[in-house]
Write a structure and sequence with these properties.
The complex is a heterodimer of chains A (about 375) and B (about 600).
Chain A lengths: L2 E4 L1 H12 L6 E4 L4 H6 L6 E6 L6 H4 L2 E6 H13 L4 E6 L9 E8 L2 E7 L14 E4 L2 H11 L3 H13 L2 E12 L2 E4 L3 E5 L24 H11 L4 E6 L6 E6 L1 H13 L8 E6 L4 H17 L6 E8 L5 H14 L1 H6 L3 E7 L3 H15 L2 E5 L11
Parallel strand pairs in A: 13-14, 13-15, 15-16, 16-17
Antiparallel strand pairs in A: 1-11, 2-5, 3-4, 3-5, 6-7, 6-9, 7-8, 9-10, 9-11, 12-14
Chain B lengths: L4 H6 L4 E4 L3 H13 L7 E5 L5 E6 L2 E8 L7 H6 L2 E4 L6 H11 L5 E4 L6 H12 L4 E3 L5 E4 L3 E3 L21 E5 L2 H13 L4 E6 L10 H10 L5 E7 L4 H10 L7 E6 L26 H11 L2 E2 L3 H8 L14 H4 L14 E4 L2 E4 L2 E2 H7 L2 H10 L6 H13 L8 H11 L4 H9 L9 H15 L3 H10 L19 H10 L6 H16 L7 H15 L5 H9 L5 H21 L19
Parallel strand pairs in B: 1-2, 1-5, 2-4, 5-6, 6-7, 10-11, 10-12, 12-13, 13-14
Antiparallel strand pairs in B: 3-4, 8-9, 8-11, 15-16, 16-17
Helix pairs in contact in B: 4-5, 8-9, 13-14, 14-21, 14-23, 15-16, 15-23, 16-23, 17-20, 17-21, 17-22, 18-20, 19-21, 20-21
The chains are: A alpha+beta (about 375), B alpha/beta (about 600).
Chain lengths: ~375, ~600
């Protein structure tokens, strides 16, 4: 549904094959057998080992080690795994002079492909920002860049065409070096447009995405799974699992507005989750989604829990049907909700709102649950206490 | 593309829907009905599997035609269409929009509803429209609304009760522009509940590259003379709002802009989260809601620090609307409307009798022949030419019977002699009608249409069939041959001299001249001749287009001209047998040979 980062391993693999040579990197997963994997490497070479989870500034943060002997790799890998990372990359270390390190980034913009480039690549690029130049790709600018970087224009053209063909939205290599006729990406980050997955014929897929930092929680994973299988959309991000504010928002824009309101009131630290559905899901889906939110509520030790089931005035999402699923889930968990005096605040509008809101009111009444139910007569953000 | 709202306000909307999303289509029809249009602004749906879809028009029903693509729509329709609404899936957005832009000459623009359209596809379409002066709103757009004039999308709601909101009909002075579809409707709700009205409302979509950019949306509002104030809802992500701030600073936007940029909450996350819409992620400070709001405020926009504050700011916008738009009590009955079990377009019963195409059956019977009424009912509308009536009469007579030896008659006779009743015996005869016997009229019509439309050389046409070892329907007879021609075909051909061009018959004859060279019984048979002449009459005299003729073959129209007269023949054979009271038929032994299968 947006721009997503794929692993460096995958990024290098697909570009290498586009350039017509084999990529020799190694991916190491936490759950794999380390010893076995490292054994296959040549003993006399030197290596780079780094975290492959879409993180920037790895070298500065101590997530990248270079010029390492094979027998040391295991120690370094353990070190990184202990920092809660799951995915590492091992490559042969290529000795080179610092002054050969160059920087290039490509970004898809409305005008075409923007190219950012500099002769002074490397870890200090942050301090060299004024050396980074920008052009929009054209026959003329590419020649200019080629002359400036002293990189064969054919290599740059190839890179641009691979960028386009594989529906890449953003590519950054810092640094890269040129060795003979080859471009070598010492570091490479690629964001693809995941809506184009169908059109790249398996060159990359959802399996190649990396999630930044800590792995997703089981709840976030379940929400992702739900989203993948539905034409509607579901989003779940965890903030503070110990908090007391639970959200079950609807509508892409209204959900952010509602979350903003909590933030503006200085209560952001109490938010457990940012949960959003939109695009007219069916009742089975809203049922499952609500169950996920309630499971979070059960886990949090906080007192005075409250759930916001709130959203804008929908254009085409059926309130009756979406609420039917939500009510079913609340109903199954009513013992818990009652016992912990969880408050339920509802605000929603859209197709069949009267029926949907009435169902919700009835349900809360009958179960003796605490809460309030409003329709569009209430200003969207006024539901946030 | 900057959208000329004024122009849209002054042109009658003629919409084609790409793909089908019934609740949205119904809501547009309801909007049209409530504004008092005499017919829907939607003229058809481009979709698969169906020929039409049923919708309510008020509390009555109507059929909206469905076309497979824009090549089979009537030409005059393509010329008429000035707007499209695309509800196809994201994968098909580029392909279908591209064809639509190329096929429709009088198109002003359209809306794309699908979420998750690839960036590169949006950008291709963006590039394409720059040189052809058409607008596209979206992807991920719920549409464009001009009160009382145009509802192009789900915008404003899809349920009938939502459509009773006066803000959809009574024009005002506030333009509502939004990145989010839901917030579009939320803002309409806010404006409406404050007693204010809109000049127009546009959801430009929350994608990374909306084809109508936020800047273009806001300039469209600036240029619209009916707009005095602008409400703009934006989100974190991207840097469009800085460009809007620039436009305001440069006095290119002079109308007051009321705005809120959602996404401050992003700061509460340790890593920037991706929110619901594709663009909604702030990777750096510039893309944050805070930075954008600051820049807009400095440029002179009226920025709400929260949505609640925005609402109270909107309250102060002066309203221009004078009279109140009353919701007609009559419309309330639309809430309880119900779908009929099935639909008929050719006839209906009244308290006073049966009406066929709104004419009383008795009147028709007095004024017209049986052939006239039959042909009209079969065609689904009153025929206009004397020639069709005359030819149908001739066909009915010529095909009424072909003796007792043909398949259908044999079956009828055998059934009758087995003691079966009239309907069973007739049915048994009718069931033999198919591509080999009698039912080849429709297939023959398909052949001749293909020949005329494609302009294929008749020799190649014959070759296509023989290389696939496929017989040509409409050609060939068991008994008749060049030396012994079918007298019925001769008569049909003689009659056809009344027509001018006879291009279908001409093609059929050319095919016959080639096939009879090969074998003398490969003559144009009665099915083939009848199909060709019917096509010529329908084309020349009834004014049907090739596309319409094709649709007739799709419903097996042409076979009716064999089935109807021959039913008379079968019934007659049944009665004949019953009168003679012949006993049960059994094949004499010598008529069935026993042959062993050779290995």
């Amino acid at each position: 549904m947006a721009r997503v980062i794929i692993s460096e391993y995958k990024a290098k693999g697909l570009l290498s094959s586009y350039f017509g040579y084999k990529y020799e990197g190694f991916k190491i997963l936490k759950e794999g057998s380390l010893q076995k994997q490292i054994k296959t490497l040549q003993p006399d070479k030197r290596y780079v080992i780094k975290v492959d989870e879409g993180i920037k500034k790895r070298e500065k943060s101590g997530f990248l080690f270079k010029d390492i002997q094979r027998q040391q790799l295991k120690t370094y890998a353990r070190k990184l795994f202990d920092k809660k990372f799951n995915r590492l990359l091992i490559e042969e270390y290529i000795p080179h002079s610092k002054k050969d390190e160059k920087f290039i980034a490509l970004e898809r913009v409305r005008e075409g492909i923007a190219i950012y480039y500099s002769n002074k690549g490397g870890v200090d690029i942050e301090n060299q920002k004024n050396t980074v130049k920008k052009e929009i790709y054209s026959n003329k600018t590419i020649t200019k860049i080629s002359n400036f970087l002293k990189v064969n224009v054919k290599i740059l053209e190839e890179l641009i065409s691979g960028f386009d063909k594989y529906c890449i939205s953003f590519l950054e290599s810092n640094p890269f070096i040129i060795k003979g006729e080859r471009i070598i990406f010492l570091d490479l980050a690629i964001e693809v447009d995941d809506t184009a997955e169908f059109f790249v014929n398996g060159i990359w897929s959802k399996a190649d995405l990396v999630t930044t930092h800590s792995a997703l929680t089981p709840e976030e994973l379940s929400a992702n799974l739900l989203a993948e299988k539905s034409p509607a959309s579901f989003k779940l991000n965890l903030l503070n699992p110990q908090g007391n504010i639970f959200t079950l928002f609807s509508g892409g824009g209204a959900s952010i507005v509602l979350a903003d309101e909590i933030y503006n009131k200085g209560k952001a630290k109490d938010i457990v989750d940012y949960a959003e559905y939109s695009g007219n899901p069916n009742d089975e889906e809203t049922y499952l989604f609500t169950k996920i939110i309630i499971s979070l509520a059960k886990k949090s030790p906080a007192k005075n829990k409250l759930i916001y089931i709130a959203g804008g005035v929908a254009n085409f999402t059926d309130i009756r049907i979406t609420f039917r699923g939500i009510i079913r889930a609340l109903d199954e968990e009513s013992v818990f909700l009652k016992k912990h005096k969880v408050k339920i605040y509802v605000r929603r509008g859209g197709p069949y709102q009267e029926e949907g809101l009435e169902m919700m009111r009835d349900f809360l009444d009958k179960q003796g649950l605490l809460g309030e139910v409003y329709g569009p007569e209430k200003v969207l953000t006024e539901i946030i206490k | 593309m900057i959208i000329d709202i004024e122009k849209l306000r002054n042109s009658e909307p003629n919409i084609i829907v790409l793909g089908s999303y019934p609740p949205i289509i119904q809501s547009i029809l309801d909007f049209d009905f409530i504004v008092g249009r005499t017919r829907p602004s939607i003229h058809g749906v481009i979709g698969l599997n169906k020929k039409s879809e049923r919708y309510f028009w008020g509390d009555k029903e109507l059929l909206l035609p469905v076309y497979r693509n824009l090549e089979v729509t009537p030409n005059n329709l393509n010329n008429k269409i000035n707007l499209f609404l695309s509800v196809v899936s994201a994968r098909r957005v580029l392909f279908t929009t591209d064809i639509t832009l190329k096929s429709l000459t009088n198109l002003l623009g359209g809306v794309i509803f699908a979420e998750n359209t690839p960036e590169t596809h949006s950008l291709k379409l963006y590039k394409e429209i720059q040189s052809i002066n058409r607008f596209i709103i979206g992807p991920s757009s719920v549409g464009l609304l001009i009160p009382g004039i145009l509802k192009l999308g789900a915008i404003g709601g899809v349920e009938i009760k939502q459509l009773f909101n006066p803000i959809l009909y009574q024009p005002g002075n506030i333009a509502v522009l939004s990145a989010s579809g839901g917030m579009t409707n939320e803002l309409l709700n806010v404006v409406s509940s404050l007693g204010k009205r809109i000049s127009f409302c546009m959801s430009f979509g929350g994608d990374r590259f909306p084809i109508t950019t936020p800047m273009e949306a806001i300039v469209s509002a600036e240029k619209d003379t009916k707009t005095s104030h602008i409400i703009y809802f934006g989100e974190l992500g991207g840097v469009d709002e800085f460009k809007i701030a620039e436009l305001i600073s440069q006095n290119k936007i002079t109308k007051p802009v009321y705005t809120y940029i959602a996404g401050s909450v992003s700061e509460a996350f340790s890593t920037p989260p991706q929110f619901g819409h594709a663009k909604a992620i702030a990777r750096n400070f510039n893309e944050s809601a805070k930075a954008k709001m600051k820049s807009l405020k400095e440029a002179g926009a009226v920025v709400g620090s929260s949505f609640t504050e925005l609402v109270s700011l909107i309250e102060k916008i002066p309203s221009s609307s004078k009279e109140n738009f009353a919701i007609d009590k009559e419309w309330k009955k639309l809430i309880n409307r119900q779908r009929a079990l099935f639909v008929s377009t050719i006839s209906h019963e009244t308290d006073y009798g049966v009406r066929i195409f709104d004419d009383d059956l008795l009147d028709l019977a007095k004024k017209h022949s049986f052939s006239y009424i039959t042909a009209s009912l079969l065609l689904g509308k009153k025929i206009t030419s004397k020639e069709l009536e005359e030819f149908v009469d001739l066909v009915m007579k010529l095909l009424v019977d072909n003796g007792p030896s043909v398949s259908g008659a044999v079956n009828t006779i055998i059934s009758a002699r087995a003691g079966k009743d009239m309907v069973s015996s007739l049915a048994s005869g009718l069931l033999t009608i198919g591509n080999r016997f009698g039912g080849a009229v429709n297939k023959a019509a398909e052949n001749w249409i293909y020949g005329v439309e494609s302009g294929i050389n008749p020799g190649d046409f014959v070759e296509e069939h023989s290389s696939n070892a496929k017989p040509i329907e409409g050609i060939g007879h068991k008994k008749y041959r060049v030396e012994n021609p079918d007298p019925r075909v001769k008569e049909l051909r003689r009659w056809a001299s009344k027509l001018k061009n006879r291009k279908f018959l001409a093609f059929a004859k050319k095919v016959e001249s080639i096939t009879t060279d090969k074998k003398s019984n490969l003559i144009l048979n009665v099915d083939g001749a009848m199909a060709a002449i019917l096509l010529d009459i329908l084309f020349e005299k009834e004014g049907l287009s090739i596309k319409e003729l094709k649709r007739l073959t799709e419903v097996e129209f042409f076979n009716a001209f064999f089935i109807i007269p021959r039913s008379v023949g079968f019934i007659s054979h049944y009665l004949d047998q019953k009168r003679m009271d012949e006993g049960l038929f059994r094949l004499p032994k010598e008529e069935v040979a026993h042959v062993s299968r050779t290995q």
